[in-house]
Structure formats: C-alpha cells, structure tokens
Amino acid sequence: MNQLMFFLLFSMLLASCNTSLSDKETQAYKEKGGIISKSTGAELSGTLTNKMKSGGLVEAVEFCNTAALPLTQKMADSFGIEIKRTSLKTRNPLNKPSENEEIILREFEANIEKGIPLEPIVRLDQHGNPNYYAPVLVEKKCLICHGTLDQELSRAADSIIKSHYPNDLATGFKEGDLRGIWSIAFSKP
Length: 189
Ligand code: HEC
Fold this sequence. Notes:
Elements: H1 3-16, H2 23-79, E1 82-86, H3 99-114, E2 121-124, E3 130-137, H4 143-146, H5 155-164, E4 178-185
Bound molecules: heme C (HEC).
C-alpha cells in the first residue's frame, strides 16, 4: 500500500468515528433542543407581548431591534450552546443563514410543498458537532409585523420597521408559512 492510500484510509477511519449519532443520542439532542428553543421563544414572545401592550408597535419593534439578539445570546450562554433564529427571508441581516442552515431551510420548504409535516431534526456538522433545527411557523399574531403590506401590515408599521431594517425581506408571509428555523449548535458529545 502506498503512502497516499494509507493516508486516505487513515483519514476515513478518523472521520468515521464521528459521522453518526445513535438513535438514543439523537433523541436526547432533540429533547434538549426542544426545551431550549421553546424557552427562548417563550422569553422573546412574552416580552414582545408586554411591549405591544405598554408601548404599541413602536416599542415592540424597538424591543426586537435592541433586545432580540442579546436575549438569545443570554439564553445561549446559560445553556452553553450556540442558538440562532434564521430564515431565507431575513429582517436583520445578522440572522442570515449559514450554508448548513440554508440547506435545512430549503429541505423544510420542499417538505411543505410535498405536504410532509415538519419535524425538528438533529444533524452532525462538518466538525462533528450536533446541530438541532426546528421549524418556526407564522402565526396570526406575527402578521402585524411580517404580513402583507396594506393588509395585516400597515404602512405605519412597515415604515417603523424599515427605519431599523432597511434591508428587511421578512414581509408578505401568510399564516402557516415557514418563517424560519431555530438553529442550535451543541458542542461535540
Ligand atoms: C412587533 C413586531 C413583530 C412581531 C409581532 C413579530 N416579529 Fe419577528 N421580527 C421582528 C423584528 C423587528 C425582527 C428582527 C429582530 C432582530 O433584529 O434580530 C424579527 C425577526 C424575526 C426572526 C429572525 C429572522 C430575521 O428575519 O431576522 C424570526 C424567525 C421571526 N421574527 C419570527 C417571528 C414569528 C414566528 C412571529 C410570531 C409568533 C414574529 N416574528 C412576530 C418583529 C416582529
């Protein structure tokens, strides 16, 4: 066996150590991912609802603008993971999908087209880190900020949003659409 062959075989062997998770591990990451994304979502949506009540749309958008990312980061730090909300149509360019996330978003879109129900999934990334992805669907209450202009989304709301997010792509959604995903990266098992 020449050196190249040996090197190739050796690297395949190394790579194969971490190319899959057992069903039990996958299930455990799904559960953890579910708990983390739900509690982060609840924290975001609870504060958003309070802001809407106290200060209306202006305050709610200000909240999303200044607090959504730090709040998500705080949750990430407390769980010792990386967490992100991302989408094919982002409002904040800082939430743009990575290559892996874009693949998942397109898979979810394709499943919707085929009528396959969306489920959270766990995949190992190139570095062997488990990643959890869960669909985020559009609900009725999201439409005042993510709906169609001049329908659920008023001109006034749109201009407040555009003043903070000149590159906003996240409008025109309908109830039940895929708004995006939760993406959680765990460290290597
Ligand atoms: C008061 C207005 C408002 C409402 C209501 C609202 N959003 Fe948003 N949403 C925003 C703003 C502003 C951002 C940008 C946050 C940031 O800077 O990270 C955003 C960002 C997002 C993102 C991150 C990806 C991106 O586009 O940057 C997702 C996912 C999202 N919203 C989903 C939802 C869902 C699902 C609902 C309903 C349950 C909802 N939003 C309700 C204003 C709103």
